[in-house]
From TrEMBL:
Record-level Gene Ontology MF annotations: oxidoreductase activity, acting on the aldehyde or oxo group of donors, NAD or NADP as acceptor
Gene3D superfamilies documented for this protein: Aldehyde Dehydrogenase, Chain A, domain 1, Aldehyde Dehydrogenase, Chain A, domain 2
Species whose genome carries this gene: Stutzerimonas kirkiae
Protein name (record): Aldehyde dehydrogenase
UniProt-listed InterPro entries: Ald_DH/histidinol_DH, Ald_DH_C, Ald_DH_CS_GLU, Ald_DH_N, Aldehyde_DH_dom
Family from the record: Belongs to the aldehyde dehydrogenase family.
Catalytic residue positions: E241
Signal sequence annotation: none
Length: 469
């Protein structure tokens, strides 16, 4: 059985305890992840703190290392993609795209020039300038649904800005991150990149460490709230990308034939395990019955299977807890009068397979509508008045993404602008434009990831004011 060690201070470290990771498609062992002890976590943070000053002073070396990291990822792309599929479940062609995105992210930041200083005054009396300074040690805590790209989106800008980093992946999918750490061991100077693994308490201890100055986290609202509260003790900076309950509004003039496939994938990509997947679908009553039938037909012919099978469209849910969550939501929906048009129960046999499930007959007040399901479930709700649909879409604690579907792009964009979400699309969902910041409103996050706003989160400003005599 393959064992995956930690990366601490430029060296691979074994651990006293290892955690077995199982393939969610068949329950077979994929490998064992080293579980960081409290002493090893301390070593990782202290190593980052020691390495950071020299790293911050070497801008050219930072860009060169990121460029080399992109090359290493491309060289080992097949190995990385297969491992993500085996521990997370997504079909291989999707994980290959994820790994390509990791390399592209490293390459993007390798080509990004350092932020120039801003001169406010330069005359015979004063030189006043603003410079950006790295924060120091950054803790990156990443989720299990898209493990490597969500790490790269934190790691690359943090290191480019001159910080050192300690990463902690989810205990459900740690192996691909530990493999990436092994591959990058000699790319970055010792201590600049450290990777520890383990259950949630490892992340909690990392987040509370006094040497950590910034926490960048993607995951649940509940954990985000704990990190937010815990960070107040020493005023840590935080970037929190949290859950979503994205609404999609299908207007009466939408092209039904054209939207079925993109709506399906907007809801069910990665078996719905995406924070900004479509999780509530509001459809004008004139199209409701036909769209529900079309989506149910598409769901019914979806090919579920192991992600290494080239014919597979959707893989399993990544862990048993998520499968049980989906089953509970469907049971509650049935108890509240739901009509199930496709799916509705887990598949027999090994693996955490649950087919794409189209649900109608429920609305606000039912958990499947009000909460983030993070699985292959889609409640479809009719509306008559678009103002009512907008109000229902906005009546949520969440505000990550939303979309509007209409032949009239101008009208669609005007309605999208009224939706309380950080990401708003027209006639599409899930597309993330390179260079655009990604962040949620309300409970869906704090701060931004990506783009200039996201990059600036990894530095702080210093005003240097020199009197000339």
């Amino acid at each position: 059985m393959s064992r995956y060690p930690l990366l601490i201070d430029g060296a691979l470290q074994d651990a006293e305890h290892y955690d077995e990771v199982l393939d969610p498609a068949n329950g077979q062992s994929v490998g064992e992840a080293a579980r960081a002890s409290q002493a090893q976590l301390e070593q990782a943070v202290q190593a980052a703190a020691r390495a950071q000053p020299a790293w911050a002073a070497a801008a050219d070396s930072r860009r060169a290392a990121l460029r080399q990291a992109a090359a290493v990822v491309r060289e080992h792309a097949a190995e990385l993609a297969e491992l993500i599929t085996r521990e997370q479940g997504r079909p291989l062609h999707f994980t290959q795209g994820e790994v390509a995105g990791v390399a592209a992210t490293f390459e993007h930041y390798a080509g990004l020039p350092q932020a120039p200083e801003q001169v406010l005054r330069d005359d015979g009396e004063r030189l006043v300038r603003i410079v950006q300074r790295p924060l120091g040690v950054v803790a990156a805590i990443t989720p299990w649904n898209v493990p490597l790209i969500l790490l790269a989106l934190k790691l690359a800008p943090a290191l480019h800005a001159g910080n050192a980093l300690v990463a902690k992946p989810s205990e459900h999918t740690p192996l691909s991150t530990l493999l990436l750490a092994r591959l990058l061991k000699d790319v970055f100077p010792a201590g600049v990149l450290n990777v520890v693994a383990g259950a949630g308490e490892v992340g909690e201890r990392l987040a509370r460490h006094p040497r950590v100055r910034h926490i960048t986290f993607t995951g649940s609202v509940a954990t985000g709230k704990r990190l937010y509260a815990g960070g107040a003790d020493d005023f840590k900076r935080l970037t929190l990308e949290l859950g979503g309950n994205d609404a999609a509004l299908v207007l009466e003039d939408a092209d039904l034939d054209a939207i079925v496939e993109p709506l399906f994938w907007g809801a069910f990509w990665n078996s719905g395990q995406v924070c900004f997947a479509i999780k509530r679908l509001y459809v004008h009553e004139s199209l409701f019955e036909r769209l529900v039938a079309a989506l149910a037909e598409r769901a019914g012919r979806t090919r579920l299977g192991h992600g290494l099978d080239a014919q597979t469209e959707l893989g399993p849910l990544t862990n048993r807890q998520q499968l049980e969550r989906v089953e509970a939501l469907v049971a509650d929906a049935r108890a509240n009068g739901a009509r199930i048009h496709s799916g509705g129960q887990r598949l027999e046999g090994p693996g955490h397979f649950y087919p794409p499930t189209i649900v109608s007959g429920i609305g606000a007040g039912v958990a499947l509508v009000d909460e983030e399901q993070f699985g292959p479930l889609l409640p479809v709700i009719p509306f008559r008045d678009v103002e009512d649909a907008i109000a229902q879409a906005n009546a949520s604690h969440y505000g990550l993404g939303a979309s509007v579907w209409s032949r009239d792009e101008t009208r669609g964009a005007a309605i999208a602008a009224r939706l309380e979400a950080g990401l708003a699309w027209v006639n599409q969902h899930l597309d993330i434009h390179p260079g655009a910041p990604k962040g949620g409103h309300k409970w869906s996050g704090l701060g931004y990831e990506g783009g200039q706003r996201g990059y600036e989160a990894f530095s702080e400003l210093q005003v240097i004011n020199v009197a000339r005599r």
